[in-house]
Amino acid sequence: MTKTPATSSTQTTTSAISGALGHLTIHQRSQFDSFRNILAAAKLYTPGDPPSHDDTTLLRFLRARKFDPHKAHDQFASTEKWRAENDVNRLYATFPTDEMQRAKLFYPRWTGRRDKHGVPVYVYRLAALDAAMQKELHSAPERRRYERIVALWEFMRRFTLPLCSALPHTSPAPISSVFSIIDLGGVSLGTMWSLRHHLQQASELATAHYPETLHRIAVVNAPGFFGTVWGWIKAWFDEGTRNKVHVLDSNPGPTLLTFIDAANLPKAYGGQLDFTYEDEPNLDAPARAALNSDAVPSGPVVFDVKEGWTRPEGYEEHRVNGLRKQSSEGGKQDQKGTESAGEGGMKPGHKRRWLNFSSTN
Q: Which range marks the domain in which residue 107 is found?
């Protein structure tokens, strides 16, 4: 964690592309080749056209382990096991639309805009999780809360990041991370304490299974007790992520504007964008054109540069009492609607093995 002054455009550009696809040093390229060979030998990766996993995904794991291919293999293998045991692809494809839309109100939300390098800008206003919202949050079983986090990380990985990769950005490398503004204005120490497990679940999940998806974290409106809070939470992140956390002063606008154009920065943080935490993404013209819609589609969705937005493989419309529940969408109609798989989107009789929430490597 650092106190952050304004950063030059050159420094920011270098940081944005360092170790990314198309910007590897000779040593990094050699380590990347070794990593793919190790994964292929372990039958965790299949080269080809297309390969089983894209280079951008593999590089996230390699960067997280400082280009040590053996350590990256261990984390990648752990994640593949976790995805299989928790049937993550099916969980996402069958996640009920209404529940997913509501779950977004408890976690960082995409503004619909991007920073100067094309990285999507997220906002998380902790004060929005007031007593009523916390009661609603904790009314769901802990397991289901965890599944909601997984679904939202999948939404980011399979929709937001590919969409932003298809939109104008400064590097030819695909976009693989997000810029998060964490707003602590109006949050008491008691609220932070009551939310600690909620925040820990999401943070440890990202560290363990979605590495290198946090490009930069800007903490704004930090209260005087933030040092105490940081003492609680810093252990949730690896060293690389901790170094991406920047605490801004009481006037964050000038610093944020070095990273984000005014038109894409919410007014609450010194920009010109009409966006509050409770809003749906405020898409710019290129995003609307790519989606052929003025709004982000609701529910589980994926984006492909050739096909546009589609439903994930195995998508099932949520059913209530045997009746298909239609979701309202702007743009395309629902695709691949099939019979419901039963309670929670699982096949009848299928039980998903549950791993330790805080498993890390």
A: 91-304
The encoded tokens of residue 75 equal 């984390």
Domain stops at, among 49, 70, 85: 85
Count of all residues that appear for the chain in the document: 361
Q: Are 81 and 117 contained in the same domain?
A: no
266, 238, 25, 17: CA torsion to nearest 10 = 0
Residue 230 CA from chain centroid, whole number? 21
How many distinct structural domains can be found in the chain?
2
Is residue 318 assigned to a domain?
no
Look up the pTM and report it. Answer: 0.84
Locate 201 and state its tokens.
């679940």
Tokens 């977004």 belong to: 104
Residue 41: what pLDDT? 98
Q: pLDDT digits over 264-286, tens only?
A: 999 999 999 999 999 999 999 99
Q: What is the band of 2 on the pLDDT scale with cuts at 50, 70, 90?
A: low
d(CA 318, CA 60): 33
Radius of gyration of the chain (CA): 20
Q: How far is CA 166 from the centre of its chain?
A: 17
